[in-house]
Every structure is written in structure tokens, then in C-alpha cells.
Amino acid sequence: ILPSEIPLGAEEPRVLCIIQDTTNAKTVNERLTLNLPASTALSKLYEDVAHKAGYVIGTFDLAWGNTSDMVSAVSVAPLDHSSEMSLSESGFEPGKRNFLQLTDKDGEQPQIASVSDSSGLDDSSQERFIGPLPRDGTAGCSSDYSSPSYSYSSILNKSETGYVGLVNQAMTCYLNSLLQTLFMTPEFRNALYNWEFEESEEDPVTSIPYQLQRLFVLLQTSKKRAIETTDVTRSFGWDSSEAWQQHDVQELCRVMFDALEQKWKQTEQADLINQLYQGKLKDYVRCLECGYESWRIDTYLDIPLVIRPFGASQAFGSVEEALQAFIQPETLDGPNQYFCERCKKKCDARKGLRFLHFPYLLTLQLKRFDFDYTTMHRIKLNDRMTFPEELDMSPFIDVEDEKSPQTESCTDSGAENEGSCHSDQMSNDFSTDDCVDEGICLDSTGSTERVLKPKSLLTFELFSVMVHSGSAAGGHYYACIKSFSDGQWYSFNDQHVSKITQDDIRKTYGGSSGSRGYYSSAFCAGPGMCGLIMSALYVVVSAEYLAVDDFPEHIKSLVQKEKESEEQEKRQREIERNTCKIKLFCMHPVKMLMMMESKLEVHKDKTLREATEMAYKLMELDGVVPLDCCRLVKYDEFHEYLERSYEGEEDTPMGLLLGGVKSSYMFDLLLETRRPEQVFQPYKPGEVMVKVHVVDLKSETIAPPISVRAYLNQTITEFKQLIAQATELSAETMRVVLERCYNDLRLLYVPNKTLKAEGFFRSNKVFVESSDSTDHQVTFTDSLLWKLLDRHGNTIRLLVLLPEQSPGTLTNRTNLSLQQQQQGSSTSDSQKSSDASDFEHIESPTQEADSNSSICAAADNRELENRIRAAAGGSGGASSDAENQFACEERSDSEVNNDRSTSSVDSDILSSSHSSDTLCNADSGPIQLANGLDSHSITSSRRSKAHEGKKETWDTAEEDSGTDSEYDDNGKSKAEAQYLYFKAEPCAHDESSGDAQKCLVVHVDKRITLAAFKQNLEPFVGVTSTQFKVFRVYANNQEFESVRLNETLSSFSDDNKITIRLGRALKKGEYRVKVYQLLVNEPEPCKFLVDTVFAKGMTVRQSKEELLPQLKEQCKLDLSIDRFRLRKKTWKNPGTVFLDYHVYEEDINISSNWEVFLEVLNEPEKMKSMSQLAVLTRRWRPATMKLEPFQEVVLESSSVEELKEKLSEISGIPLENLEFAKGRGTFPCDISVLEIHQDLDWNPKVSTLNVWPLYICDDGAVVFYRDSTEEPMDLSEDERNELMKKESSRLLKTGHRVSYSPRKEKALKIYLDGGPAKDPGQD
């Protein structure tokens, strides 16, 4: 696009001017590039520079710059800004880079051009923000958005910009940028619309062109602000994990174009990609002696431009410079000489590229990502590189002066023999003028005609800029695209589309100038490195976008289909916005009286009656309870509180009753049921719910609760009368006890005090007793009522699995236990808790015609049933035998894990029951107890968990020893100090296995110590408490031993499982030790042998003597005491060898649940002193690709020389040929035989073993060694692959890594068959 007065201006030589602005620090690293005809006047050069730099003409000077040092001082006078001399006459050299410096004029900085200037630069517009959107509260980024000219209003909605954004699935910004660029390309979009999908031939879900077509239709016609790309990525064969993989946008472009070409085979669009994006270039080598040239023709879809040449510290300043370097020929001389077929010898030659044909859409890829060989990391080059709005490519076609006295002979490099200058391919594709097509061709498709442009008009207009903001590790892509319909630039940043200006485009040059974007501070080290160009598309002419009215019929049908789908989606969203979603509960009258939970979704305009019918069907009550016997009430599930009922509001919309449509509600709904003869009780707002438990002092029983509703302003006297009506007890002798929280029992004795003053809340729990006994005359804390309630609140239920070797029968043991309890409790109030009078005898309310009265259900469930059914009359008391309850009790969660193995963890976790609190199961609901104790309700269960933080203290000496003694200093059993409630009953652990007598259900006061608990279990186990161990079973069936005997069971909760194992319990100063056998040359080098006990002060030899009979009896190992050793075990690694005279706790630190290795010796022990060092060595034989078995070498010192001498002695390798390397990882330090020869650090240059990189300071280190003269085996490709499979299988079985290399990046792939092929053998 040139002035009409010089129509042949492009034919003349052109001058490449590179101008550095040195007027201020911000612009010193910026360079402007101008490519002007050699006849251009100096005054015109000043005008062009002023226009490009944004300065007023006459306020700056231009001077020659030093090409070797651009920042050096100007050594010559400025150029005359008024001169009409041409550039060639002024010393500019055509075809070369001419460096200039823009300097101050008369010591004053240049004036910035105003808005009205032709430059069009607005100073305020330079601060406009484009790129990734800022995040609120991002540290370090406040300055990025402090500019007064920036506001979020620049992010316009679709109605204002006319464009739709794309939703970022996770890290798919690179995909969004490419899709928006393709959509904004008229030729691509129109061609895609002309393609018609045949549903009979392909699945639309896996059809990439069809999903792109749908996406483009939505981008053009949708009313949404942004649309999803999940259908497109699904057609690629990607799963959800691909959304979290960021790739290079250029890589995606290549892969997607390949996929489209495959899908478009044998269609009109088969050659679309090549027509739009493919160019041709010549790759040549010319002999400098005879002029003979060998060449081949290559095609390209993009031109990769280097930002910074390899080894250079200075980057190219503009796209023009990078293009010039791209075609700059390279001289092949010296050792790189080229063999000339004409000269029949090696000659100096010139190798380079020439552009022959430019595509319709020219793609330039700036290679921002590079590899730093110093740090061995991938890096991103943030250097500034400018690009023009219009790019003239004519200087880059045949720029080399090819005039030569020699006759040029050209051969196609793909041909075997020499031929003419023009091959058949060349004659078909190009003109015969010097093998160069100096135009741009686009085959006629639709309304677009073939365009041919002479070399002088190879001018491309900037169309799209792909920007990457961030580092090589990650960042964000967005696109700046020019619309051909209005000429306006837009920023397509995922779902946000906004208008931008040329100034915003300039900010994507990179470098340190300009305002910083969000990702610059998050990812980039240097200041001001924000939006960076990745790909620029330049077009010659643009076609018209296909209007909606001009769509093909199949696209119109698709538009209508998408419109209907969008309308349906809109209606569904409208329904969702008007739907109330609330939790619904129901105590099902048939399904084991279980509280069922669901979610009720009801439109806000539905009435309460309609909502009740929906809840009735949702809870599957049809045929169980009549609909008119159900109602919805407001319910608080956390406090089990019925807030209010809705009498007379059956026709009220649910939106009004629930307070509108909300994302969550602070209350729930309960579908309440009743019997036909019953009447619903109204629940009024402001009432509080009280669970009333009746206590019988004579039988020492506590009945299940009865629900009573009261008001907070009622007095205690009025409250007693209310309870008397519900329980038929006397109000005059009634005692009411409020349980406010755990162990907080308050007697309500002030008649005129209100419930609110006493601390009543929404849901409350009280115990009432009304009798003529004298118990009410004593102090409350000394009364029998208090003792019963205290025991009731602290009793838990445990499931105890007895060992199989337990002698005797459970019946005998049960009787013995009861006798022992009666004898041991002579000084305790618990004497009344005999087998007949223990409060397991539960009163239950009368339930007329209730067929479920024999079902063993928890008290809370009965209470809920009572409350839901809302019995009109009071309930009497009917006794149920506790033994019958136990007999019919069946609990699936009583199945205790029978695994005998235990995990080895830190002693402070294993040794203390309370230290494992975090591993306890949190009860998620009411726990059903066989004895019906109500202390196991949700409320009490929460309180007991809160109390678990209170821990008992223990003796310091006992703590230091790792365990507690069961006896005090006087030899008296600690369990005798205080008796606490204990009762055990047989339980069928597993009916199918016949082990019904192997499990106990124990109800025990959790304040009992472990020592007392074990003594109470003695009759059931059949041995004394010192001869069995207690293991606590956790949710994942792991078993940890409880050893601190003076700790209580406060950390236990209902239905915790306990396993009893026979074995001597620990005494003071003793430690339980697990012994493993070390088998260095076995596939599994670590084998468990026995559990044993080591004591403080014991020598290693004494512990070996005690081990011998155990090993012989349990492991069938008959060993001599001098032919095995003990050594330290750290996970799987063997460590220090323990010598016989070492003393535990003096020479060897020991802890609870300790682990040691036992190693069988083939010869007498060589380790005699701690100064010696035992090293495990293994020879590597490269010739056979095998590793020999381990051999132990005992060194007298840490000398490398001694190690090599020992290795030479056992292997026969000459000392000068012996090389060694330390093994990596955990024992046995497995490594692939394909990697060991190169990957290990062989023959480190050290003299001692205890320094870097060896650090061999303890026994058990693994050392590989080899003969340096032994060459590795030569493997064929098949042999290598077979060996690789074997090694991978072997190393995977042993749990070792196959390779030490870091995880490789996932390759970007598009699957044409709908998904990746699955390997049937792959795990």
C-alpha cells in the first residue's frame, strides 16, 4: 500500500532503520523499526519516526548509533531534520541494518504528541489495562490497577461489544484464544459453515468440525455473555483432566489443523488449511566456488522467529529483524564444508532459506520459550519485540544478491540425479521465473476470488495477536483481534470481551516498559513483563463475514436447534431460581423406625398441601400411612427440635412459609405422621422442647424420654405440673434435674424461677423422680439420684473381642465377674448395681398395637417415635427384661476386625489411648445401646467428645519408661483404689462363624483406668491382667495397643471396638519390640518374626538369649547365639549393628513399639567395636547386565582407600580399575540395570566415606562397584525393549521407581476416534 506517485517504489532497494530512544530510562531498551525505500528523504524519516514514537516533529534529534554498543554516547553530529537528501545519499546502506539513536534536542526531552496529532497517541490511553483480569486482594498487584483511567466498565457485555466470550474450563485459556481467532477469521468461519455434517456417517459428539460449527454458531448468535467449550474438548477425546493441562497455543494450532484435515478428507474443505495458511520456501545450499546449488521445496503453516539468537545476550528488537535473521544465509566452512557434487570435493558453501510463496494468512510464531543450559531449566524470554500494524514482506523474498558469473545449476534435493533448474513440482506450482512465486494465491472458494499481488504489494495487515502473560512454568493466554466488520480491536480474555486501542497492542511487545499485568507479578521475575506476543496473523484482504440471513440451510437448522436448546435452558434456570431446596426428615413408621433424610425441591408457588403430597411420595409412605395422617412441620435437626407447625396454612405458598428461595436454610422440614385415631399436637413458635426421663430409684432404672413442650417464661412450679400431666407423677414430691451439658446436673428447686432463668434453650433434657423415699432429704450431690444420673452420663458401651485361646466358658466367666463385682464394691455405692438391679431394666412407654415392641431400638429412637406420633394421652410404664433385650440384640457394627497384624507407628501414638483421639470415629447419629441408656443420644455424644480433652495425669517415672505399672509402690493393685461401674454380657460376634462366645458387650464407666478395666476382664479372658494385652480398633481396622494403665477410658466412645490378645503385659521399664529378619538377598528383604519385650538395663546378649526359645517355638528357627546379630531398623533400612555388650537405654536408645532387625550370620561376628563400619556391597557386571548378590564388608575406618582394597580383595578386580558408587533410595537401593551404568555417581573424588556426596556414617549403607575396563553388553533394539519390560516389572513389584527422571509433561493430542486407546494390561 504505497503512494500513487511512486508506483515502482518497492522495486528499488530498501533501507532497514533501527532507532533506539535514549531520551529516558523507560524507553532506552525500546527500539523502533522502519523499512523505507532508499530514495526517502531525511525529512520524511523524521516524520515517520515522530509518527511511530509519538513525539512532536522538531523536538528531537536522530544521530548515528554505535552498532557494537547501542547505549554508548553519540559520537557524531545529528542528522539534518530539514534535509531533502535521500537516505542512500546520507550514508544509509540498503539491505543492512542501520542503527540510529533518538536523542534530546538542545538538552530538552521530546514533546509528547497531543491527541489531535496525527500520531493519535493518548497519554492516558497508555495506562489502559488489557490482559488477564485482576483478582481482588492480590498482594503486590495494587499498582497494576491504580491508574485512574482504568475501570471495570471497559469489560463490556455482549450487547455492547457484539461478541461472546468463552468459559475457561480450568487452564484452557490457550484453547479459547485460538478458537476466538479462528472465529474472527472470515474465510475460515465461512468455509466451516459451508461444510455439512452427515449424522448417519459419524457421531456428532466425536465430530470435531461439527462441534466447532456449533461453537461458531453460538458465538455469532447466542445472547449469553460466555459459552462453554466442553463439547469441543469432548470431541477431541479429552477427559476432565485435560482441562488442567496448559499447552502452547501454537502446538494446539498445529494438532487441531491436522485433525481437521483428517476429518475433511474427500470434502470441499479438504484443502482449506493449506489454502489459507500454507506457504512455500526453498531450503538451499550453494557452492561458493562453482555456484552449484542444491535445494528442496518445503511448506510451512507458520514462520518460527527466534527472539534471542543462541549464545547472544542481545535480542532482536522487531519482527523485521527476526525475519531478516531467519533468511540470513549461513556460511559452511572449515570442518563444516559442504561436499559439492560438481566440484567433487568439500567446498565453502552458503546455506539458507528463501521465501517462494506467502500464504493468505501469514502466521508468525515468536519463540518465547527456550531452554537455559546453565540452569537446565526451561525459561521464557521476556525481551521486547515490536511489530508493525502493516508488514511489508517484499524485502524478505530473494533478498540475497544472486548475480553470479557462474551458471546456476539447481537440483531438487529429493531427486537422485542432477536435473534442470526447475523440477516437475516446481513447474506445476510456480512460475518459471527464478523458481520464485512473487504473489499470494488463494483458490477460489465461494465468493472469494484468487488474489495475485506483485512483489511490491506484499503488505500484510495485523489481524490477531496471541499474548502469553506469565513464565515458562505457567501463565495465561488471551488474544487481541481486529474485527474486519468495523476495524475495531478487541481483547478476547476468556469470558470477557472488551474494546482496546493501538496503544494496548503496543503493550504486548514485552520488555520492562509499560504497565504490568496481573500475571507479571505472579510469575515473572523482572519488572514490567506483562502481555507478551506469541503469534501474529497478518492478512492481505478480508472477506465479508457470512450474515445470519445468508446462512446455508443446514446452518439455519442448527441455529434454530441451538436457539430452542438455549430457550429450554433458560426456562430450566428460571425454574431453578424459583425452587426451594430444603432438607426433609421423616421417622418412617415401618423401616426400623429410622430417621430418613432426603431433599425436598418444591417451587415457591406450590402450596403447603401440595408440598406435603410431594414429601409423602418422596418418603415412600404410600400404602403405609394415609396422606391425611401426615403433615410438614418446621424442624431443627441439630437440636432435634420441632420449632412450629403450620395449622390453617395449607394453602399458603411455600415461598412465604420458608422465607423465600435461598441457597441454604437455617432450619429443616419434618414430615410428621400419626395414627388415624390420634390428633396432631400444635407446635407454636416460642415453645421449647423438653425430653423428660423418669427415674425409678427402687429399680435404679431410667426410662426413655417423653417429649413435653413448654414456654421459657413458665415457672418451675408450672413446669412440674406440666410434667405431672404427661407422666402421671405427683408434682408435690417431684424432683426435676436439668442436664445442661456433660456432667452439669442442676436440681431445679426454686418454685418461682422461670425456665429461661434456669438456662433452658430450644431442646432440653431433664430427669424427674417422684417417690416417698428419704433420698430427697439429703444433699443432691450425695443422693442416690445424683449417683444414678452421674453413672448414667459416664457409661459407654464397648465391643470386646476375646482371644480364641481363652479357656473356660462364657457362662462361668459371667457368674465369676458378677461375684467379683459384688465383693469388690463393698465400700462403694455401686453395690446396689447387682445383676438384677442394674439400670439395664428399662421402662418403655405404652405403645398400643405396636408390633415393634420387641425390637431392640435405642431410647432416642423410641423418643422420636413418641414425639412424631404425638400420642394424645399419657403413657404408662411397662417393663421389658434386660436379658431379653440382649438376646434379641443384633448389631452389624459389632463385627470386630480379626486381623492379628498391627501397624508400627510412633510410640506416643501407640502407647496412649488419649493420644489417638484424632483417630477415633465421630459418631454421626444416635447409637443404639442394648441397655437403652439415653446418655448415648446425639446431644450427650457431642458432650462426651468435648470432654475427651480432659486427661488423667501419670507418674513421671512411668512415663519415661514407656508404660505404666499396674501396681503402686506398696504392691497394691491400683484398680482397688476406686470401683467404677462395669458390666459385661456375651454377644454374637458373627453367627455364621460360630464364634458367638468370643465377643463381649461391656458397659463401663469411662472414668475407669485401663488397669481396672483389665482386671474386670480377667474372668472373661481366663488369665490375669498381666498376661493379656488390649488393642483398640479404629475405623480403618488398624489396631493400636493401649499400654498406659493409669489412664482412663475417657477417649473411648460408644461402640468402640477392643481386641484382647494373650501375651505378657509390660512392667515398669519394659518395651514391646517387633523383631524382623533381614534377608539382604531375598526379593522381600524384611520378614516379621516375633513380638518380644526388652527391658531397660538389659544387654543385647541377654535379649538375644531370651529371643532364642521364642524363635525356635514360633518361627522354627534354631540358631546359635553367636550366629545372629541385632541391628537398628529404620523403616526398611538396616542400620547400626548392636554389639553384645551394649546396654539398652544407656548405649542404645529404645522406645515403645520399637523395631529391630535380626540378621543370621554365616560366619562368626566380625563387628567388635563401634569404630568399625559395616557396608553392604554389590558388584555390577556390565558385560552380562547383571548384579551379583550382596556381600558385607567390615571396615576399620571410613577410608575410601580401605573400601577399595576390601572390594578388590573379594572381587579380584585390580585396584586401579575398581570404581564404586553409593546406592540411592531405601534398601535394597534397587535400580534398573539399563540405568545403573550411567545414572550413578561412579568413583567420587573423595578420600573418606563420611563426606559429600557419600555421607556414609553408619552401618548398612549400600555400595555398588564395577570393573572400569569391562564394557557394557551390546543390546539390539528388541533385546533392550525386552529387558526394559522385565526391569520395569521387577522394580514395580519391589515398589522402587523405574527411573529418577522427573515426571514428563503430558503431550497434547487430539483423538480422532473419540478417545485415547486403553492398554488392557495397564493398571
Automatic annotation (TrEMBL):
Phosphoprotein as UniProt keyword: no
InterPro entries reported in the protein's UniProt record: Papain-like_cys_pep_sf, Peptidase_C19, Peptidase_C19_UCH, USP, USP47_C, USP_CS
GO terms under biological process: protein deubiquitination; proteolysis
EC number(s) stated in the UniProt entry for this protein: 3.4.19.12
High-level lineage: Eukaryota, Metazoa, Chordata, Craniata, Vertebrata
The protein's name in its UniProt record: Ubiquitin carboxyl-terminal hydrolase 47
Record field: compositional bias (Acidic residues): 955-968
Coiled coil: none
Keyword Protease: yes
Source species: Myripristis murdjan (pinecone soldierfish)
Gene behind this protein: USP47
Gene Ontology molecular function: cysteine-type deubiquitinase activity
Residues in USP domain copies: 164-522
Enzyme class, broadest EC rank: hydrolase
A Pfam match: USP47_C
PROSITE patterns per record: USP_1, USP_2, USP_3
Compositional bias per record (Basic and acidic residues), positions renumbered to this chain: 888-898
Segments of this protein annotated with the region Disordered: 103-144, 397-425, 817-854, 872-971
GO CC, any one term: cytosol
Keywords: Hydrolase, Protease, Thiol protease, Ubl conjugation pathway
Ranges of compositional bias, category Low complexity: 114-123, 817-836, 901-917
Bias (Polar residues) ranges: 406-425, 844-854
Catalytic activity: Thiol-dependent hydrolysis of ester, thioester, amide, peptide and isopeptide bonds formed by the C-terminal Gly of ubiquitin (a 76-residue protein attached to proteins as an intracellular targeting signal)
Domain of life according to the entry: Eukaryota
